[in-house]
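Protein record
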Amino acid sequence: MIRRERSAGGRAKVTSLTNFTARIVRDLLLDDDVDLRREFGLEANVGDSKVSFVLSAREFGQMGWVLNRLGPQAIIRPGQQQQVRAAIQWLSRRVPQERIFTRLGWTKHGENWIYLIEGGAIGTDGFRRDLQVQLPAALAHYHVEPPIELIERIRAVRASLRFLALAPDRISFPLLAATYRAALGEADFSIFVTGQTGAFKTSIAAVCQQHFGAEMDASHLPGNFASTANALEQLAFAAKDSIMVVDDFVPTGGPADGALQSLAERLFRSAGNRHGRSRMGGRQLRPPRPPRGLLLATGEEVPGGQSLRARLLVVELRAGEVDRMVLEECQNAAYSGLLAAAMGTFLCWLAGCYDQVRGEHLDRVRELHREYAGAAHSRLPGAVANLQSGFEMWLQFANELGAVNDLERFDLKERGKRAFRELLDLQAPYHHASDLALRFISLLRAALATGRAHVANRVGRMPESPATWGWRPKPSGRGSIPQGTRIGWVAGSNLFLDPEVSYLVAKQMAGADRLPISEQALRHRLHQHGLLASRDAGRKMLQVRRTLEGRPRQVLHLRISDLLHIC
């Protein structure tokens, strides 16, 4: 490559720039629905070798790619880098521009909705290959195609329907509903399947995942908690309008558990809030990239934290609840591509009525939310309503296709109602366990029951119902002996806790699980939950003054009924 110019005297001056030639042959616009990034496809000749590669526009402009891509034999003359860049652009002339989508999900193409998937897109007429989709490697197996023949479409949907026989309704209905609900657009909740090793939680999650691609079995799931938070967030951003399994949340009781909890906190909170972390790109603030699919996670334990669990619907899978014969049947249907064909058929149907179905879905969610309001944490009724409505939309599709008759549709809708209500009712224990105020009360109850603490009467002696308050009968059979540390006093229907002592006992009872809250913050949590029967309004303090065992003390005033009956 040379540069030719005329000097002031009119003579031609030739300057050697490189010992190779290169030109841009592709102008690529990468579209993730938030940003447009540009890349160039280049062809270069070095000696007898021809090399093809792709660079970002920024890499191309900086010219640091020459040695990396072409090797040590490629030479740019000193001081000529930008001249070489300009020469390559000049010699490339008109370069065809290509638009490449780098994510899944719905987009408007002209006047029509299409669903982007690996290899192309799905529209009302089926699979189309006239669009380019280039997904991250972990999502490369997201590929579905609707069958051409109606009879094959019906067969695929019936195979997917078989999933409902896999486990009890409280498990199978929410999971199948989540799989199809994902295709209806944004969801501000995630699903967490929990159970001990051998309960088949990963196998079931994989069958759900294989609705979006036959190759994504239990050994090839797109996400894992061994990945970094950044990597999972980027994948969940690209997995728009689809389900994405994140497998294997398993705390070990070691120092790494804190990082694992932080990863789960960041991922599920971003998904629930629909807001990712902002980042700097050079000197500019880049738009956030929150998860845009529906996350389906698995683990032996549910991540802790009340606000985090409020963004999760927990599906508990117990040993022996999965029908192994039906599981094998569903896995065979998944491997053969039947489940992906069912999803392709659903997406094809949605493409023709997406705006209408989406509107009906949102109306139905609002209606169901009113029915479920007050049944659990304020976020959870909306999440369950989303699943139920998504399932009902899918039943409508299956009925219109002819895969489900009117009687079956009615029966499945009624079974679904019961299953979703049961799912909502089963969320309470997870939220009590994650709420630190309720957990504190539970830990004190455990301390009294196990002889690690006791409560006395107002003068420091044995109270009524001593067994309830951590006292054990004397060997002689007369009277009772207090066990463990004294944490408070009872008087009538009132319980007065020593704030410092009761807090220390609760922390000891928590053991390896810890009680991640300060004593002062815990008092405020108790007050927020209405668990403090009174407070010192005059001094603006949560503690009250009472004379106990003959001297004034600063105590927390609770009702006995709260300690005995909560949780």
About this structure: Residues 164 and 173 are 6 Å apart (CA to CA). The first strand starts at residue 2 and ends at 6. The chain has a mean pLDDT of 90.
